[in-house]
Amino acid sequence: MSLLTLAIFLQDGSPYWAAMKHRHLILAFVLTWFVQLGYAAWIWRRWRRASS
Amino acid sequence: MKKLFYPWLAVTVALAIYGFMQAWYIAPTEATMGNIQRIFYYHFAAGNLLCLFFFANFVASIWYLVVRRSNPERAQKLDAFALANAEMGTIFCATVLIQGPLWARPVWGIWWTWDERLTSTLVLFLIYVAYLMVRRFAIAGQTQTLAAVVAIFGFLDVPIVYMSIRWWRTQHPSPVIFGGPNSGLDPRIWTAAFWNLGAWLAWGILLVGVRYYGLRREQAQQQRKAVAQVLMETAR
User: Fold this and answer.
1) To the nearest whole angstrom, how far is the Cα of A24 from the nearest Cα of chain B?
2) Residue B34 Cα distances to A25, B106, B192, B222, angstroms
3) pLDDT single digits (tens) B34-74
């Protein structure tokens, strides 16, 4: 990637900056699902262990 | 259980996707906060559901104490139900405590402040972590009774959390439900909030159901082990 392409990518309005602008919102969404799915995986494993 | 699992999972996934669409694309952008306000749709659901699951744990714990001598079989079911609900409530409480600072930082300029709502929610989380640790590490025998008593006292913090923004002037915003004449939201925001509440409720019930049946199996396993041990000792 040339420096010009990189500069265009990093300028305001690019997907990178759009994501950075909403990073708190995205992080809240990702972490919420991470915690919930982590717990779901844990109980699923306990269920499988209790069934064996 | 198995018959109900997959249809319930399908409904939950459908609700979660629709709730997400409502929250991110259909609900209007809030005028003062902008897009960051969309955290509200998960925050509102988690905040309400943690109260619901802790309440279920509270009722099951009282019921457990009432029937533990007269009906031990039912008491075991209630104990498993209480634990499943406490775990689910704690998970929702953890997500509330993650989402809150991530919302507060861009809006208030700070990650955290020791106001009544935030502090009482953190205390609530720590109480139920303590409850889960009692269940995990207490020496067997009185664990279930001890946990039920901790749960009953722990639940006393839930009304404090709920009422904190009514009793005190806090950094946390005033209530939007039953908050008096100046409270309330745009109807489109309500629609998105209730779809997400429904989705997370379905998700919570699903996990409590799976955990409950898992715990019942663990109880049966422990019972079988205890019986086998008694039989071996009497055979010696």
Assistant:
1) 5
2) 11, 10, 16, 53
3) 888 899 999 999 999 999 999 999 999 999 999 999 998 99
How many other CB atoms sit within 10 Å of the CB of residue B108? 13
Domains along the sequence of chain B with CATH: 2-174+190-235 (1.20.120)
A27 touches chain B (CB under 8 A): yes
Query: Model's pTM, two decimal places?
Result: 0.89
User: What does the block give as tokens for B153?
Assistant: 């006292």
3-state secondary structure at position B112: coil
- Which of A43, A44, A48, A49 would you mutate first to test chain B, the one with the most B CBs within 10 A? A43
| Nearest Cα residue to B121 out of B156, B157, B89, B145 | B157
Which tokens hold the place of B194?
Answer: 């209730």
ipTM score of the complex? 0.89
